[in-house]
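Continuing from the previous page of notes. For each protein in this section, the sequence appears first, followed by its structure tokens. Read the first protein now.
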Amino acid sequence: MARTTTLGYAKELIFTGRVVDAEEAERHGLVNAVFEPGELLEKTTAVAELLASKSPVALAAAKRAGNRALAGDHRANLDLEASEFGELFGSEDAKEGMTAFVEKREPSFVGR
């Protein structure tokens, strides 16, 4: 929890056992968003559809970089991120994305 919010706030919740409501959790970065129950399916489906329209190869690389961001040596993480970014340009998905952009159409990614 200390990596998603401030150390002081994390300690407060851990030491006191205080329960927070959804709005407070959002304010402190413990959750990404808060929706009314009737909106939840629509909002999460929209995010899922947006993610599904992206290159699986690029999303996987971004996920790896994000997971490493707060762990280990910062310089080494940046070097690895730059290397992966460079490798992405050689992927079939990158070529498809650039072609689709030039042709003014939606890309059709294959995950390679």
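Done with the first. The second protein uses the same format. Note its length before scrolling.
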Amino acid sequence: MKEAGRSGTGDGGDQLIKDELAELVVENEVLRMMCYRIAWMYTKGQHPSYESSMSLLFSSDLLRRTAKTGMRVLGHYGELGQDSRLAVARARMERTYLSCLSIGVGGGTNEIQKNIVAMRGLGLPRQQ
């Protein structure tokens, strides 16, 4: 997947982008393992509570950072709507970027998920 970068040189992008993409790939694998653990717990008849909250927190943050990196890689092309003939991949990155801003609210706010992890996973007392 070697295409022209921002400078048009075709060198695969600058080192900062490469580092960010590598981190996102590693974190995606971490999330996959978290999901496998939750599925394994269900097969053993266990009910993951704080594990599910951890994966929800991690996935929402990962999606947000992935969309941000994608928009940075695409530059101004990432801002084009799906009706534009110049939009990359039918503007999926733009839609993802805009929708991920509210993803921490959809399945329960991130603060609630953090409280679940703190109380059930770490055994900390409930906030007053």
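What the second structure shows: Residues 15-43 form the longest helix (29 residues). DSSP finds five helices and no strands in the chain. We return to this in next week's lecture.
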